Structures are given as C-alpha cells and as structure tokens.
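Budget justification aside, the reviewers requested a transparent look at the raw inputs and outputs of the sequence design task funded under Objective 1. We therefore reproduce one unedited record. The lines immediately below are the structure tokens for a 219-residue chain.
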C-alpha cells in the first residue's frame, strides 16, 4: 500500500509565469527530497534502461543537441545536460506541429543537508487562458505528481507500479490523483486565484483523470 497522504505532502507545488521561445508560458513547479545521493537520482533520470522502469521507455540521440522520444508521450530536443545537476529539454506533445503543446522542462538536482537529493522540476508551456481557467495547473501537475511517485518508489526499493494503467483505475490510484488535483488547486489559490476558481479547476482536472468519480469530485 502507498502512503498517499505522505506522498502528496512530500511535494511542494507552485505555479507562475515564465517566457519561453513559444511565448508567454504558464509554469508548474514541483519540489521534493529523495533519500538517495544526487548521482543515483541523476542516473535514474538519464539512463535509458532505468527511465523505462519508473517512467516511460525513451529513445533517441540522447546527448545535448540530440532528440528524445518518450513512448506514447512527449518528445523534443535536449537543450542542456550538465551531470549530475541540470537537465533541460523541449517538451512537445502531439504529432501535428500546428496543434502540438510545445514547452520546456527543466530538472534541477541539489544535495540536501542530510545527504538526500532535492529534486526540482519546472514545466513551462503556453496555455490558452480559457484552458487555464478550466483546468489550472493540475492538468499538467497531476501527471508530474504521478512521475515523482514512480521515481520515489523506484529509488526506495528498485520496484515500480507493475501495471500503471490498471493502478490508475484502482481505488488507490484514483485517491492519489484526486488528492493531487486538490493539492494543485491549493497551489492555484496561493498564486492569486480565488477559492472558487481553484475549486472549479480542481474539479475539472479530477474528472479528466478520474472520469468514474464525477460524483465524488462534486461532493
């Protein structure tokens, strides 16, 4: 069993704005500590054999200036790779360039006072105002919370969720995603949104990730 509340509370969440080549971007930022040395966390993030064990299989020319592709998900260019502290990539989701979601993802690692690794990820993308009003940061943030959960389980015991799709539909998975959506709603309030705006966005995000729980999300 996963300690859902503990995992949710282990992550610090922020949302803001930052200009990127595609335009004025909205950002989601997650930060948490892992009880592992920086070098091990870096290796788990950049070794193709290890990435597929906790996130998604990756292919491509995995070097600065090269390209990567996550199976069934985003791809892009590797902009910066400075072992074992900094990785920055473009994040392109969608096959049609005219409609693709184009952004940037930057991962920063640092050593904590007790030898732990402080992991920080910032995802910036141009998001239409109407979409932001509908979903807020949770549309992207819940996905990254799932990734951080997977990385934590892998670093802790070398294992990962055996069938992520089945787990997402399980009671445990739906509780995690609902709690994540609510946490991103709180981050939206902290950024200046009203509680009503945040509640609407969190509810829509929960219904997107957990369609069967519409009634629970509205309760």
């Amino acid at each position: 069993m996963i300690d859902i509340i503990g995992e949710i509370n282990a992550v610090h969440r922020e949302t803001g704005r930052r200009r990127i080549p595609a335009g004025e971007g909205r950002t989601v930022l997650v930060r948490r500590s892992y009880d592992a040395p920086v070098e091990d966390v870096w290796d788990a993030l950049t070794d193709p054999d290890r990435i597929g064990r906790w996130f998604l299989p990756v292919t491509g020319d995995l070097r600065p200036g090269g390209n990567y592709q996550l199976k069934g998900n985003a791809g892009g260019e590797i902009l910066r790779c400075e072992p074992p502290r900094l990785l920055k990539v473009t994040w392109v989701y969608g096959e049609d360039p005219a409609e693709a979601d184009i952004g940037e993802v930057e991962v920063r690692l640092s050593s904590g006072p007790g030898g732990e690794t402080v992991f920080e990820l910032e995802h910036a993308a141009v998001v239409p105002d109407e979409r932001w009003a509908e979903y807020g940061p949770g549309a992207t943030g819940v996905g990254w919370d799932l990734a951080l959960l997977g990385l934590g389980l892998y670093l802790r015991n070398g294992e990962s969720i055996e069938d992520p799709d089945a787990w997402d539909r399980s009671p445990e998975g739906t509780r995690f995603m609902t709690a994540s959506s609510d946490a991103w709603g709180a981050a939206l309030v902290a950024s200046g949104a009203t509680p009503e705006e945040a509640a609407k966005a969190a509810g829509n995000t929960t219904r997107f990730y957990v369609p069967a729980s519409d009634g629970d999300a509205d309760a």
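Confidence is low (pLDDT under 50) at residues 213-219. The first strand starts at residue 12 and ends at 20. Computational costs for records of this kind are itemized in the attached budget.
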